[in-house]
Structure formats: C-alpha cells, structure tokens
Amino acid sequence: MNFGGRVFEPSPFFCQTTLRIAAKASMNRTDDPITDPLRLKALRSLSLVDSPAEESFDRITRLAARLLKCPASVVTLIEEDRQFFKSCVGLPEPLATLRGSPLSHSFCKLTVRAGKRFLIQDARVDPRVVSHPAIEEYGIVSYAGFPIRTRSGEVLGTLCVVDVVPREWTEDELETLRELSASVESEIELIAAAERERDHARMFQTMIQASPLSVIVIDTDGRVELWNDASEAIFGWTSAEVLGYPLPIISEHKLDECQRICDAVGDGSVFRCVDTYRAKGEDANGEKRTVHVNVSAVSLHRHDGYSDRILLIIDDVSQSHAGTLERERLFRELKIEKALLSEMDERKDRFLALLAHELRNPLTPIGNAVDLLRFAAEDPGQVHEISTVLDSQVRQLVRLIDDLMDVSRITRGRIGLQRETVSIHEVVANSCRAVDSLCSEMGHELIRRSDPEESLFVYGDYVRLTQVVTNLLNNACKYTPRNGRIEISCGHSKGQVQITVKDNGVGIPPEHRTGIFEMFTQVEDTLKDSRGGLGIGLTLVKQLIELHDGKVLLMDTDGASTGSEFQIHLPRLDSKPKEEKTVAEEEGPKRRYRVLVVDDVPAIAKMFTMLVGAMGHEVNSASSAPEGIERARELQPDIVFSDICMPGMDGYELARRFRSLSELDSSMLIAMTGNGQPEDIRMAMEAGFDRHITKPASVQRLREIFQELESRRGVE
Fold first, then answer.
1. Long-range contacts of 431-435 (CB under 8 A, 24+ apart)
2. Which domains does the chain have, with CATH numbers?
3. Domain Response regulatory, which positions (predicted)?
C-alpha cells in the first residue's frame, strides 16, 4: 500500500502500555503492566477507547508527522488485547478505518515496558526487534515513541511516529515529540476534567433529588430556580407549578420574608430559623395548611463574586420539634468529633517531630565520649566509664528509633516496656549527663542529692525511666532563667522509690496546674522564658510512670516561692540484684572462628570487624556482595555477617548464591541490617540466612551467635 508516498504493507502496529509510577512501587509489582488493573481502570474511566475522532488530537498527530517528516503519527490507547488509535495520520487501510489492531504487531509495547522514550533506528538490524513481524509484513524500519500518562502516573498509551527508512533521531526531533506527547496528556487531562465535572453534576443532581431535605434555589426577586422532590413532599407544590414563579411558601403576612433572608445572607453568613411556612391546600379545619420547618439559607456567588441566588435547605419538623433539637445536638457532636479527629492528627504530627528532636539528645554525650576517648586511651577505668555511657546512650537511641518506626503504637498508648532490674542511681546519673551541656549553656547549677550506698532499685524499663527523668530536668532547664538552680534527689519511703526534681524558675500558676500533664500543654505566660518544646514531655512522663505502676505529682508551693517541684514515686525492689559481669570480665571465646563481614559502608564494616576481632576471632571484610562471595570461597569462613541493603547485588541475592555453593554448606550466614520488621526477618530467612540481627548488634547478641555456632559443631 502507498503510505505517505512510500510503500507500506498493511500492518497493525503501535502501542501497548505499562504502569510505572515510582521505583518503590514498581519493585513490588510483578504482573504484566498491560493487564494491570489500576491502569485499565484509569483507561476505562475516561471513555476514550472506541470514541469518535477529535480535532484536538488530530492536530497533534498531523503536527508530529510534519515536524519530524514522518509518513505516519499515531496516538494509541492500549487495552488488554488490542490497541485503539485515538488519532492517526498516514496509516494505510484497513488500519485507518478500523482505528485499531491486535497487539501482536505492536512496537509501542517496547516503549511502554521501558517506561520512557523508545527509539529504533533500523529495525532490520536491531536485536531487540529484528524478528518482529511488522518489519517483514509492513516494512516498518524506524520508530520513536513516548508514553502517555495520566496525572496520577498511569500509562494509557503512546504518541509515536514511524518511517520506512532508517532514521537517526536527533535530540531536537525527540524534544519536539516529547513536547507533543505532553500536549496529548494535556488534552486527555481536559477530557478527564470534563468527565469529572459531568460526574459531579450528575452526583449533585442525584443527591439533591434523593435528599430527604427540601432543597430550593431562588433568585434575588424570590423566583424559584430549583425545587426538588422533598420540597414537593413537604409543601405540596410540584416543580411545574413553582419553577419561574415567586416562592409560594411565603404567606401573605410575611411577604417581606425573601428580602429578610437576602439581607441576612448578604455578607456571606448562613441564615437559620425555625418558623411556620405555607403549604398547598387546607388542613382538617379548612384553614390554609402550614408546616413547621427548620430553614437554613446561604447566598450563592458567581465566579465574579457577585451574589444573585439563595440556597434554602429546609427540614420539616412539624411532627416533633424535639427531633430538631436532637439533630442539632448530633450536629454539634459531629463538629466536636471532627475537631477531635483534627486535633489527634495534629498531635500525631507534632509527636513525630518531637521524637525526631528527642533522637538528638543522646548524641551529645556520645559525641563528648568519642572526643574523650582520644585523651583516655591509657586509662582503663575511664575507658570503661566512657563505654558505659556510650552503651546507655546507644540503647536509648535504638529504642527511640524503634518507637519512631511504630508511631501508631505510641499514639494509642501501647508502648511496651522492656523490664529489668534498674538502679535509680544510674538513671539519675545518666539523666544528669544528658542535660549537662544545656545546664552549662544556661549557667544553671545542677545539684544532685542522693546517698550512693542507699539501695534504690526498681523493676522497670531503664531507657524509659531515663527518658522520664531527663524530660523533667529538661523542663526545669527550659523554664528557669539563666544562672538558676536545679536540684534532683532520690530516696525511699514506705516501699516506694522517690525522685524529686526542683527548680527556682518561673513556676506554674495555680490556674494551669490541673492540666499540666495534658498533651501539648504549655503555660502561655511562661513561653517567653522557655527554650521551646511541643508541650508533650509531661504527658509522656505521666504515661510512662503509670505504666511502671507509679505516679508523678506536681507539688504545691507557697505563694512567696517560685519554681516548680515534681515528685516521682515507683515501687521499690527489696534487695539489690547480683552484679553482672562487665565486658572486660566476660569469659573469652572457647574457640577462635574465621569471620567474614560484608557491608558496603566502610565505617560500619571497620568498627564491626574491630569489635569481633576484640572478641578473639579472625575477621576479614568485603565491601560488596560479589566480593563477599569470592572472599567466602577463598577463606571458607565459619560465620558470615552480611548487610542487606547494598548497591548492585543485595544481601538476599548474596544468601541465595551463597547457599548454592556446596563448599560453603558448613558456614553460618547471619543477616545484620537496620530493617527489623517481621517482614524483613521473614524475607531474610527465605533467602537462606540462618539468623537475623537488627543493627547495632550488642556484644551479648554476638556472643549468643558464637555460642550457637559452638553448640552446632561442638567445642574443640
């Protein structure tokens, strides 16, 4: 057939689709994009397939063919088993008349599956399409296509051009085609917007007619423009009787009612009243029938802001005025519920922001400890003290991150405690270290009063209790003017451990004391004296202490004194627990193992290899999964610790290949990653890992892993 002056065999061609929204989403999507239900739903919702030709699309395809000097240009929409040509220029018969074809001869499926522009310079030698039937049957040699997407990212089809001779597509040509494809998307969006408008209009009309309330629209002269079925049921007049006429429900003695309503809503406010209005016919006593109704009126504005109509919403309350009161009550409750939901959402966002801020608190003593290690290398006692501080702060960071990953559990008050025997002296000491820099910055004197020989132990969560005391100290620092005094003391009385935090700051006025533990509460008169905060700290203090079966109190102060005093009471353990062995006192390994660490982050790999080496094992490392496999085959390690999220080959693929090598059957494979959700653990086990550890791994957890390996093989 003659195709734009060139010989072209009849051929169905063009376009198949794919759904490519974002990298994350596409990783989880395994089905063929052509049959993707979301894409097909988006396509069918526009009613474009099998629709008549439209000049707006034809202009674009004509322009594409002319500007790129190609014999044919097509806008193609893809269904599951065929392609429809929304617009086509230069297509031979019967394709031009049929405006579609099966997908078997489509080049556009390559564009769609690629998710970006797809180019063919010479199909006869291009290995991607060299055996494509359209080359032999219809002589297509060169092709350029761009995917067409909806505003939400769903791919509907393509805009493409073809030629029967080889073409080297220039960047100018491709930019032109890209711009034209954007124009096609704009036209489709206009169609989608028009369809949405029609849907809204139909929905609006359906809602009005189905509404049990009378819906009436009148102009400023009182003539009726809208009268729904409920209006007829309430007042008795049909639409034919009232449309275009003055509102009939106004009785003779209230002829100024329309003007009164117009005046009332003239400034954009809503007019409401409960009153008696006229209905058609007579009642049982021969009097003109009336109905008692609840009326709401609002002015309707045109696009230029001018008000020329009034909307009336009318509810018949003749049978029971009490029903009206009930509806008003429900309406108020709905508004309250909406406000509560809005407040809860705001609380969630603010709580997330607070947690992000709280993550920075442990970093101060960690940074100081790192700097101090440079000066304390020759002092084992000081190094041990520093390591204790680092351990406690890292534990606090890990717990805070865990909470941040599951914020819904926190906002619902479902915080789980990791209970152990806790020294209150250690909690207080750690909390004081956490606020030391803030106290120094503000010039505060931090006084700690306690008897170190006094047995003060509780059964609780060390990190949470430290968080509680730190919050109270932080509050004292923030609301105490510079060069103030903050006291913290601990003791016991009547089976309770008591922690007291007292300051000489601005204090809390009596009118604000009752709500001080509520979420996001801050005393307005003292905000100027504080150092910020979201007003959530005391709420957390109260919730966490109550989870420990304790209580927190704001103590009364006399009128002459300033400052605040908080007391925490917790159940006390009767006896002091046994001393645990320190890291230095722990027994060394019963056997020296060969260990391989695979991690693409050099700092993590280095510190972890140093830690395992310090435990007495022979350690090697690899910076990528392929290198890790090669090193494993070379070293025959007893145990391999591998990260999961690595570029190129990830840890899951490493595990699968690792398990395919018979020479590594005896090696233990451990996934060590920052992803610790149940789904992450399941995927690690399915890939071939023996165990899953969430970073950072503690020395105790590593010892458990090596002990498990020893139990497998037996101690030599």
1. 431/466, 431/469, 431/470, 431/473, 431/488, 432/473, 432/488, 433/365, 433/389, 434/361, 434/362, 434/364, 434/365, 434/466, 434/470, 434/473, 435/470, 435/473, 435/474, 435/477
2. 24-197 (3.30.450.40), 209-321 (3.30.450.20), 415-573 (3.30.565.10), 594-714 (3.40.50.2300)
3. 594-710
Q: Which residues contact 279 (CB under 8 A, 6 or more apart)?
A: 234, 235, 236, 249, 289, 290, 291
Q: For residue 713, is pLDDT > 50? A: yes
- Written as one string, the DSSP assignment of 194-216 is HHHHHHHHHHHHHHHHH-SSEEE
pLDDT in tens, 180-234: 999 999 999 998 888 888 888 888 888 888 888 989 888 877 889 899 998 888 8
Instruction: Judge whether residue 257 has pLDDT over 80.
Output: no
Separation CA 621–CA 601 (nearest Å): 11
Return phi, psi of residue 471, to 5°.
-60, -45
Average pLDDT, the chain: 80
Q: What was the pLDDT predicted at 624?
A: 93
CA max distance for the chain: 112
Q: Which of 16, 10, 3 is nearest to 102 (CA)?
A: 16
Residue 78 has pLDDT above 50, yes or no: yes
Determine contact, residues 369/386, Cβ cutoff 8 Å.
yes
For the CA atoms of 102, 108, 114, 119, what is the dihedral angle to 10 degrees? 150
What is the rounded radius of gyration, in angstroms, for the C-alpha atoms of the chain? 38
Residue whose pair of structure tokens reads 């399941």 in the numeric block:
682
pLDDT one-digit tens code per residue, 11-53: 343 333 333 444 444 444 446 888 888 888 988 988 899 999 9
- Give the global pTM: 0.36
